[in-house]
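Fold Annotation — chain and its backbone

Fields — amino acid sequence, structure tokens

___
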Amino acid sequence: MDYLKGLNPSQRDAVLQTEGPVMIIAGAGSGKTRVITYRVAHLISKGVDSFNILVLTFTNKAAREMRERIMHAAGPEAKNIWMGTFHSVFAKILRVEADKIGYPNNFTIYDTDDSKSVLRAIVKEMNLDDKLYNINFVLNRISASKNNLISAQEYQQNEAIQADDHSSGRGLLGKIFEAYTNRCFRAGAMDFDDLLYKTNELLKLHPDVLYKYQNKFKYLMVDEYQDTNFSQYLIVKKLASINENICVVGDDAQSIYAFRGANIQNILNFEKDYPDLKVFKLEQNYRSTQNIVNVANSIISNNKEQLKKNVFSEKDQGDKIKIVRAFSDNEEGKVTAESIMQERANKSMKWKDFAILYRTNAQSRSMEEGLRKLNIPYKIYGGLSFYQRKEIKDLIAYFRLTFNPSDEEALKRVINYPKRGIGDTSLDRIIITAGEKDKSVWEIMSDGQTYLDGRINSVIYPFVTMIQSFQVITKNLNAYDAALHIAQHCGILKDLYEDKSVEGLNRYENIQELLNGIKEFSEREDIEEKGLDVFMQDIALLTNDDNDKKKDADTVSLMTIHSSKGLEFPHVYVVGLEENLFPSQMSLNSRSDLEEERRLFYVAVTRAESKLTISYATSRFKFGTLINCEPSRFLDEIDAQYLELDFTAKKQPTGNPFFDDERSAWASKDTFSKPKPAIAPKVKTTSILAKAHVPSAGFAPSDTSNLQVGMEVEHERFGFGKVVSMETKPDVKATIFFKEVGQKQLLLKFAKLRIVG
């Protein structure tokens, strides 16, 4: 039992408690995996048959790592443990028992593409509008139903569900669900959700099978229990109901997958199912410095729904958490890249010691560009590089075709996207003709009356004239206006806008983010030529992917916070801490959604081992318009004593009468300048965020049609400022230096300014 020597008292107690229901609340970096593996090893050392142990995880990687550790501690017996993901373990059981629910033992498991293909055929056969019955939406609806153990028949009998479908104009969703279920059954196939749904069905309809596995799995352990959904919860509860030797491990503070069906109530209410439950709290964080742990604690303390714990670290106090203010998202990427370059040089670190975490995939653009300009190697995890995403490549293909219609690869990519009736047969005929006539595909298409039959030419002609119009119109436009015109008239924006699924919304946001980047390019003052063709030359350098990167290559890691769960890095940058971005605007309608966003921030903070930098931008381009951004409310919740402010980015011009302190009012609060006690007080200190400006009595916006440089103004939120410069095209904008928040560029038609003098 040498493995017990390396455990702290809480870990040791959790390992030794092998009988009865157990819940291990494992704070971030608290050695959770070690406790699980040693607990299984201890069961085996006590004489428990390894065939009677079931360990459920959420990733195959976690299962492999645990099995290797158990083998090291307990020997080859570990090979006999039933260990794996929920889906892999129950697929194994279904292979044995499938005939009892009418499936062959060699049933096929459909992946997402298979499921979409089946649904696409059903929607087509039912003569339904595939825009209204979007395949992604339909599949997500069916998936959510199965995870809540709602059958196609129950779906159609549920009045609330039916009322919801009819109100959205999708009254036939239930029929599609039924047809999909029947078609999968006839094909002897189960989709991913069926592996859990059918296991529940099996255990419910066949008590003998349930009894068999209740007696087989005398000891159950479930990792990441806070991420279980209703279907998983019921399976585990049924299997453990005889012996009740169930141990669940998790952290309610890291429950961030509600959008995938995870139900945090499973862990919060676990004691209700097992009144004699024994609870162990792993509260020592071995990963992060004291300051990082203190910041994480101050964040999560704002959640009402939580299992209380006091996470602490015995590592060094460490650096304070740096808060960086940037004046745009592009500058945020630039400052982040420069910081990584400097930190690596000063501390002899490796590139792979750094990670940049963001709330949405679209934010990777400005980060990638900042890293590229300094030749810093990086890798996108959990998603493609921004410029390698399909929707981005599709729109860029239209750009390429506009400037070089002989670009055959770009033409083949978009000739029938969005769909315009140019099928593979027609395209093949054109390509063959081009080869026979020794001409380019574009030349054949441009002179379709000569080379193509009337039917093909009638379909091709509108596409050709559209590209030709792009060539004419974009000649005298800047990069942004040209790009926006193409995006609006080629059909991509409309196609993505009409896709209301989560994936469709993400793709639409990514297109907008590309246009935002082009807008930034169009407004740069350091270049003279600002046409779309010049921007395309820059992009060509950004799209060269390094295919030789190895898994353990020395690169900076870029990923969404969701993708970062379970990982750790010496230095972490969490970017985009702005209202309506993080927390997401979609999370502000309910406390539960907002608390999940806060847990997501907690996860981001606790990925850092030794240094954490948090940044936000005061302005971002959205839909081609520069918008002002407010710092996230989450920043306001961090105890100020753990923070260090860096507001030196993009210093304001000297000589400005309103230039006070480049740290701004936010940085000049008393809490920033006064020395702090060595031990954090239990009561939260004053927020580091400056108080909002209180408008003057009787504040009313003035007529700004005659606003001029030098005038003094008041803004409801930003306070008093002075007009520094004016622009009149394409919209009237004023650049104003505000005493409290620095320089802002505002569209006058939205600004609501009061002219002071």
